[in-house]
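LAB NOTEBOOK - FOLDING QUEUE
OPERATOR: T.R.
BATCH SIZE: 2
PURPOSE: Compare the predicted structure-token outputs for two unrelated chains run back to back under identical settings.
PRIORITY: normal
REVIEWER: second-year student, initials M.K.

ITEM 1
FIELD SEQUENCE / FIELD STRUCTURE:
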Amino acid sequence: MRIGETIYLDHQATTPLDPRVLDEMAPYYGELFGNPHSSDHSLGWESARAIEKAAARVARLIGADSDEITFTSGATESNNMALLGLGRKAAGGKRRRILVSAIEHKCVLASARVLEERYGFTVEQIPVDRQGRVEFLALDNMLGEDVLAVSVMAVNNEIGTIQDIQKISRYARREGAVFHCDAVQAPLAMSMVSLATYTDILSLSGHKMYGPKGVGGIFIARELQDQIEPLIYGGGQQNGLRSGTLPVPLCVGMGAAAELLIGEDAKENLKELRRRRDAFVHRLRGLSWPVSLNGPEGETRHLGNVNICFLGFSAHEILGALQPRLAASTGSACTSGIPEPSHVLRATGLDSDDAEASIRFSLGFGTTDEDVEQAVGLIEEVLAKLSKAELACST
């Protein structure tokens, strides 16, 4: 996929809005502008029906019911709502510990830290192996009747690790803990049809699944909803879990994106995505410079994720030299203001030098074979120039 002269390989940061999604959204920016909470006239009813349909579509994606879906402003709010909402309601109770994996998104780690600093919870990080998989022996030893919640993301946003959600669920539920899953990266990585079966709370984001920015969703199991304290108070919309007038076009867009991911076209797109990912890795490994793949191989990896360590190079120098011809990143866009090596890569055992030499390339449905070929050529060109410059400086 090209944006002007740029090959776009940063789909885990954000995906482009699918034109079919935009088509469904458009009427709600025009003549169907009614407030979905205006219950006394037909324009309000029309918007309310659109919200109900969108919630049903999102629910169908993960195997939930529509009344278990709450729309939010995005994944950060959803993850905050999951942990802060649960923790603040349970503050002072017997369950005083929260377990999070060491490679969670920063908004999960930050929310957990607030619960520790302000509400007296103890937060412990579940270690992961070199591929980013949860260490189950450690999780088993950490669990107990005093654990309120376990939070583990379905698919890591930096190295693409797909966790065994069903097994984590068994461990957490055996001790009566609530299982929260950040599933933001899951729609382009794995089958989601039964995720609601194995999770109690689950977070989603519209712009990570070819939907619009500014909207997310949170699945909260029906029997758990009275145990969540809202972050936003007001008119009591969305079962009182999140007050405020819903942005109808954005909710419609997220629902439309979810519907597209259930269809037959998506299966073929995902198959092609994996093929191109593997071809990209193969070509990079064939370069004249040593590289290593961060994270797992094959089935247990996000279908579009390629996180590569260019040994002996600086990732920032490589990306800078590639501009504006190729867009990729050193990790999560949400931590771009933090001048330190990726906590995800460090948790998997990489030292600072290797972490700072690593780049995340993330392919999407619009990535072509030609994009892959040209991207590898550009990377090879840049590595050659940087190597030559380094050699000149050392002589």
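ITEM 2
FIELD SEQUENCE / FIELD STRUCTURE:
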Amino acid sequence: MKYEAVIGLEVHVQVRTRSKMFCSCANVYGAEPNTLVCPVCLGYPGALPVPNHEAIRAAVRAGLLTGCSIAKYSKFDRKSYFYPDLAKDYQISQFDLPFCVKGKLHLSGTGFSGAEIPPHEVGITRIHLEEDPAKLTHFGAISGADFNRSGVPLLEIVGEPDLRSADEAYAYLTKLKEIMRYGGISDCDMEKGQMRCDVNISLRPVGTEKFGTRVELKNLNSFRAVHRAIEYEIDRQTEELNAGRELHQETRGWDDEAGESTVLRSKESAHDYRYFPDPDLLPVTLSDEEIEEIRKTLPEMPDAMRERFQKEYQLTAYDADVIVADRDIAPWFDKAAAKAKNPKLVANWLISELMRELANAKITIDECKITPENLAALTDIIGGGTISGKQGKEVFAEMFASGEAPAKIVEAKGMSQVSDSGAIAGFVAEAIAANPKPAEEFKAGNGKALQFLVGQVMKISRGKANPQMAVAELKKQLQ
């Protein structure tokens, strides 16, 4: 029998704030374990939580950016369970009255495997705000708990079961990460645990509507791991069903190194967590004016920016995708393109040269010495024929190292091209006279001979002849 996968993702995103969700401890990654803690985030009896106003605003921003309805009245609840990373034996979360409900994301393009994804909407059930538990690190027979992460504001974005493949799940996560980064909500660095994902997956016979038995996959720490885990689980469940074995609702862990999932525990239901309103926290109310104030702070989103770059700067869809994929590079390019005579040439240099050098130097665009205005000036100089593209690479290297303006580098190095037609004609005549054999070969139809003659023109002019003008003049004189 053929089966269809039904997939829903629960994505956890750490909110970028200065302090934790319910206390004033710093929200900083990489500090010595258990140094950013206090009685509140360590769960001491009698310690009272105070909500982080900026984290609540970030939750509303996330909802607005994903098309959610924003609740004017919501509350925090206690979610009770016992685990070593939870000091209080309960987590402050949200149950029946979250901040954001009924959103959607638009998916299209290609997935991780390269297959086309039909354009469609994927629903978002809810976005709620909670506190992150501590981080457990396992050392063989023992484990260490770092409570620096305990209490960090955490968004849980619960998606509808509208995904049907590993490719769609990968595209959904990529889109969600873009939105969170552009919205200034989170850096979404998965290596730092700032974005984590659980996968709910079931199978049903193709053509039926009833959902199958759901399995939850945990411990997924990269988009690639999500893609691999879903494909593995589809194969595993298909094999079980075809063999006539019954699937059970359970939570499974994913071992990315082994490439397989294993049973962790039977799946809990909502009543197992014994949710009830947190008695230490008042409900949160939001007015229409407050919601509109937050809406006015929303930035241009990736899809809109891609479309604008293609229309305004004549970029290809590929160029726009590459540039917009990086939240820091996109506005940098926008500034450079607005200053340049040929924005497409700016995009070419940014993608082929600058992004490569940034990666090699292991620095960000904000740390780069080249300014948007200077890259625009470089492309104008090249496009105007002052220097060749080859010379441009030499100037670019100097700009990257020193941050100097391209015009000053060109002047200091005496690199300005000769674009005077009379001078070019003289160089060409001299090159033909000194190389009669290649000249005759070109006349006889050997196109490669022309490149040799161009090289001779550049040699005679000490590299300063405009190459395009030299080619045109050579053809003119040889014909």
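REVIEWER COMMENT (ITEM 2): Residues 223-242 form the longest helix (20 residues).
FOLLOW-UP: none requested
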